[in-house]
Amino acid sequence: MTHLEIEAFFEILKAGSISCAAQNLYVTQPALSRRIKVLEAELGYPLFERNRGKRNIVLTKQGEAFIAVARKWLGVWQEAQEIKRLNSPRILNLSSVGSVSSYILPDVFEQFSQQYPQVSICFHNYHSYEAYQYIDSGLIDIAFISDHMYYKNVETIPAFFEPMVFVANNSCNYPDSVSPAMLKPSQEILLPWNPEYDAWHDYWFRSRPEFEVSLDQMDLLEHALLWKDTWAIVPASVADKIVGSHVSIHCLSSPPPDRIIYYLKKTCKQTEPVSLFLKLLHKKLETIPQVTSYLSGAPD
């Protein structure tokens, strides 16, 4: 099974016919048909029905099931291609949880690219448990995570901490200090922050498992806060970015524990680009209200 064969399979699905797919790939129709026949021979089953008189392709049951497998194969192939870039001193491979990448890192990326144009940034958005695996495998140089755990050969180092605050659509008219007891769960925009936050949330709202919307994508938060009467509990760095004409920020009288963001790196390994990036991140964190950086003493 080769990349050309998988590419042929998906292009035929996209184009709707072998003739159109061949034109899109700049190959002859017989050449493209041979790729599919070779793939089917390797798999041991047909992917497409071959009925005379039909112009559009039709997948067999095996072909429909193969779509998910082919997508996974493409993902593995892409990871394999990235390996050749690992030892390049001109590339910084990093990842982050969504809230940090959306609201803190963009400015750091810009500063890094301006000050160190000789180093390229290769960024991935990974959850915490995925980041440990990629750091350990060497696919990522540094990762920012919220859920810390033990992982052999990977160091988990505090990067910064910040309080959790209350934000709401201005239609709500909340006081400066808000008690969780006065909140309506049915109006909540629920987001997963870390296990400590989940325990706090269960304490206050476990008997009322309601919410307006539950999100796992940070870029949807600001849109949801445009809805009338909605509210959310977010880290201070997020609140600093989204507060404005439609959103207000308030203190919580009984807040969740402060959120700590950690960075991961391979034990006994820190490249020069990583050190440069951490220094710029520290400068950025110092400009965000209520955020305290641990990075002033980050190792060079």
Folded structure, characterized:
This protein has 300 residues and is of the alpha/beta class. The chain has eleven helices and twelve strands. Helix 2 crosses helix 3 (29-43) and helix 6 crosses helix 11. The chain is 40% helix and 19% strand. The protein has three domains: 1-82, Winged helix-like DNA-binding domain superfamily/Winged helix DNA-binding domain (Arc Repressor Mutant, subunit A, Orthogonal Bundle), CATH 1.10.10; 88-158 and 258-291, Periplasmic binding protein-like II (D-Maltodextrin-Binding Protein, domain 2); 163-250, Periplasmic binding protein-like II (D-Maltodextrin-Binding Protein, domain 2, 3-Layer(aba) Sandwich). The radius of gyration is 25 Å and the shape is globular. The mean pLDDT is 88. The chain has helices at residues 3-15, 18-25, 29-43, 61-82, 98-103, 105-115, 128-137, 195-205, 221-224, 236-242, 272-285; strands at 91-96, 120-125, 142-145, 154-162, 164-169, 177-178, 189-190, 213-214, 231-235, 247-252, 259-266, 292-293. Helix 8 links the parallel strand 7 and strand 8 (213-214). It starts with a helix and ends in a 7-residue tail after the last strand.
Summed up:
This protein is of the alpha/beta class and about 300 residues long. The protein contains eleven helices and twelve strands.
For the structure shown, list the relevant keywords.
single chain; 40% helix; 11 helices; 3 domains; D-Maltodextrin-Binding Protein, domain 2; 19% strand; Arc Repressor Mutant, subunit A; alpha/beta
